[in-house]
Amino acid sequence: QKEVEQDPGPLSVPEGAIVSLNCTYSNSAFQYFMWYRQYSRKGPELLMYTYSSGNKEDGRFTAQVDKSSKYISLFIRDSQPSDSATYLCAMNPNDYKLSFGAGTTVTVRA
Amino acid sequence: GAGVSQSPRYKVTKRGQDVALRCDPISGHVSLYWYRQALGQGPEFLTYFNYEAQQDKSGLPNDRFSAERPEGSISTLTIQRTEQRDSAMYRCASSLGVDQPQHFGDGTRLSIL
Asked: I need a labelling partner for B66 at 20 to 30 A (CA). Which of A54, A81, B1, B51 fits?
């Protein structure tokens, strides 16, 4: 069993819809949680960075962490075609070694 | 530079050859990381530097893989006697410090024939 599980999708939504992404994990030591966006042929781009449990909002993006359930989510409101990408969750306990999910491919249809 | 720069973007070489992959981190970032990303997977940790010191190389698959960062800036990942299973995307990331968010480059796609 992988340390971080993420449904690879693909996920297809119409423009303006809410995109809901999630990851589960098994290592209770994880404390820092990130979401990266990766466009085709590009490197992962950091979207959200959160510590411990709770919610964080940045524009159209909301990240949620539920450590009791070992479950994290990313919501994208008012989705745009430019949001079409692969979204990777990542986490680490208290150091540098990131553990990534496999990524979810999202397509927002115009 | 504005972001993490990696070169070459693509490298094709024959099995048995040595390859060197270069990473130029964001200016001022003291921590540097190498990851390997297989198709359809997230990056997997290879090694980490703080300034010029290699702090952790536990993710390097075997002793054919090595990395250095002699002046605490540019880093080189070297793979000796390449094998087909080494084919992958190799990514470099950097951060202001070890407890800061990591920023990734666009990677080097390595193909071993």
From this structure: B1
Contact between A100 and B42 using a beta-carbon 8 Å cutoff: yes
How far apart CA B91 and CA B77 sit, in angstroms, is 10
Interface of A with B in 59-88 (CB under 8 A): 88
Q: What percent of chain A has pLDDT over 90?
A: 87
Beta strands (DSSP E) in chain B are 5-7, 10-13, 19-24, 31-37, 44-50, 53-56, 65-68, 75-79, 88-95, 103-104, 108-112
- Of chain B, the percentage scoring pLDDT greater than 90 comes to 94
Residues B52-95: pLDDT tens digits? 999 999 999 999 999 999 999 999 999 999 999 999 999 999 99
The span from the CA of B66 to the CA of A91, in Å, is 25
CA pair distance A20, A34, nearest whole angstrom: 15
In terms of Cα–Cα distance, which of A91, A94, A101 is closest to A8?
A: A101
Nearest CA in chain B to A104: B40
